[in-house]
Amino acid sequence: MTMRDHSAIEELLSAEVLGGLDDRDREALYREMGEHGPDCPECRQLRDEYGEVAGRMAFALEPVPIRPELEEETVELTRMQGQGVPLRRVRGGRVVAGLGRMRPFGVFSPLVAAAAAVALFFGGWVARGLIEGGGPPFDVATARVVTFQGEAGDLAVAYRPGQTGAYVFGSNLQAPPSNRVYEVWMFQEGTPVRGACFRPKPGGTSLTYLDANLETAQQMAVTVESPSCPSAPTTQPILTADLT
Amino acid sequence: MGSALLFEERSAEPDRGDAVAGLDVTEARDRDLVRAVGRGNEEAFRGLFRRYAPSAMAVARRVVGQPYLAEEAVQEGFLALWRNPHAYEEMRGSVKAWLMATVHNRAVDLVRREETQRRRAENTGPHEGLVVLDDPAESVVDEMGLPEERKAVRAALEALPPEQRAVIELMYFSGLSQTTIAEKLSLPLGTVKSRTLLGMRKLRSTLSGMER
Questions:
Q1: Exposure of B74 by Cβ count < 10 A (0-12 exposed, 13-18 middle, 19+ buried)?
Q2: A236, A223 in Cβ contact below 8 A?
Q3: For residue A85, which phi and psi values (nearest 5 degrees)?
Q4: pLDDT tens digits for B141-156?
Q5: Under the phi-then-psi rule, with left for phi > 0, alpha for psi from -120 to 50, and beta for the rest, what region is B111?
Q6: What chain A residue is nearest to B141 in terms of C-alpha separation?
Q7: Which of 1.10.510.10, 2.60.120.200, 1.10.3430.10, 1.10.10.10 would CATH assign to domain B19-207?
Q8: Which residues of A touch B147 (CB under 8 A)?
Q9: Nearest-CA residue of chain B relative to A101?
């Protein structure tokens, strides 16, 4: 053991693992630990042992039976991860969109797609502005919603003019052929710009986030592509939307 | 899938006469499952979910107060496991503590971000106190090793001086910051901090004597 004083770090860490520090004290903790460096054995020991205590405190409570569907929904979310869809879930009739501060990946429930698609297509939730979320909130009351035309199903895009980010909602979508995906394109002065790839969920719903500013696009389209998501369309559009 | 898992197919209970051995077995199984999750094994993920989601749900519901938010915290915690199982470092502690801490962090983040804390306080009044109920129903989930864990953690908490325990419970189970607790209990912030430290030192000392 070194002679360095760890009393301040211990005091802060013992509260941090309980979730009890405010921002100022958390900054103080990071500053103190930073001065000791990442390899300080005492700091690591304190962090690990207090962390273990805090984690185990959860077992003081009675376990709560979970909804039978929750396991399957969670597993489904693991399968969807990496698709870049930053919607989280339906909660008490509300849709939460956008990334939380601590969420490097977007996740969402199949229920979200269905509910969000229904909301957009029937307008009620849009009008009431019930989609919100982390990041900058997506205030759909001010969003522009454009529907796609085509026979492959119902698709709509919601975006805020002048701002980055758009959500493409689908329902009643036909499943693409096996080993094929749908790819969303934005056309800027006739040039296709890749948006995102997706496969509808069972039941034909989809919800896809586009990290793009649609202000510069005049049209959008969806084509059937290989899972590699080519950088230019290789088939004719099955759904199109006019943004002008 | 998962044939390499050491404990995947084993349903036999550990020797109840040797709780320590049982805990060792369950922790070894948990670590095995986390390694399997790292290989993309969905069944291993399900195994951890079935075993720990009810406990995670308990703490999440306690913190956020609303079932749908609690589900969100639990899902996010387990999804963090799926995304990056290597974030769990065996040298740092037990799988169960790591999982619970992950879910608890999510719950605290949620409750503060969405300001449900204020609404919940309005609905439920002041500090509810730790709910220490009867022995947990082992039929709820795969509870191998967990009843002993519950007893030990509860005993450790109950052994704390009431003022230390109250501060720690408000922080952990209600998601309150030390500053908020000081205001709520009309105590100097320094008192809240010292009670936290003293209580946590006792818990650390008590629980570190147990097998993980």
A1: buried
A2: yes
A3: -105, 105
A4: 455 667 888 889 999 9
A5: alpha
A6: A65
A7: 1.10.10.10
A8: none
A9: B109
